[in-house]
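Structure in, sequence out. Go:
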């Protein structure tokens, strides 16, 4: 069976790690302290990749200065994929120059011309986040809704040359209620691209379901931060 990646999430709001319910700024469910400390802890626990989201950047469209550098330094060689507010090529370039191994764009991917430009310029270092709510892609930190179905955006990404997708059901994010397997299957079937799953993961069994579905890996936030399972458990389970 192909390897399956477990990527712990570090979501940062106003300088500290948090978990949000459905991505809503006013619904903080977990306070997690300093992001550099979290990165160092996850690296020490065996993480092979880290997922950093600059929530302030996602809401404002302006990435937080120095955040990527701090987390990358604390990760001590563990690669970091970073997103939040990367709305143009210059912002993506800055994140990569700051040490991120991959840059994640969401809102920017809704612009077809920009999507093609980013895919051509950054190749496998670009990840497109497809964040879906009620059958439509959401943007701008999940506060605005497009009319684009996630499957259609996934197909557009494949045609543009994007190499990897991150797919999140925003309704389930932070819920521990299980991932949206139908959404993920639509994106996998519609694009043929490697897919990282996020949103709703609450048990080791959920990781098994995602692997069986054909996902490349899972970005895990609330489950690890609330103690539903530990990172070491997840890594051992997916090995």
């Amino acid at each position: 069976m192909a390897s399956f990646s477990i990527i712990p999430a570090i979501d940062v709001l106003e300088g500290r790690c948090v978990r949000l319910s459905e991505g809503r700024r006013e619904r903080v469910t977990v306070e997690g302290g300093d992001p550099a400390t979290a990165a160092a802890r996850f690296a020490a626990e065996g993480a092979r990749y880290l997922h950093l989201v600059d929530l302030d950047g996602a809401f404002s469209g302006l990435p937080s200065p120095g955040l990527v550098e701090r987390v990358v330094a604390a990760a001590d060689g563990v690669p970091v994929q970073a997103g939040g507010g990367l709305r143009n090529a210059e912002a993506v370039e800055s994140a990569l120059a700051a040490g991120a191994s991959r840059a994640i764009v969401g809102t920017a991917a809704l612009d077809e011309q920009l999507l093609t430009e980013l895919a051509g310029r950054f190749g496998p270092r670009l990840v497109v986040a497809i964040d879906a709510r009620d059958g439509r892609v959401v943007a701008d930190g999940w506060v605005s809704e497009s009319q684009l179905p996630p499957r259609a955006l996934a197909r557009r990404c494949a045609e543009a040359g994007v190499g990897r997708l991150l797919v999140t059901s925003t309704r389930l994010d932070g819920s521990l209620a299980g991932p949206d397997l139908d959404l993920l299957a639509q994106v996998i079937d519609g694009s043929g691209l490697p897919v990282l799953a996020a949103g709703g993961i609450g048990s080791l069994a959920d990781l098994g379901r995602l692997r069986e579905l054909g996902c490349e890996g899972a970005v895990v936030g609330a489950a690890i931060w609330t103690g539903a399972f530990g990172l070491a458990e997840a890594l051992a389970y997916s090995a």
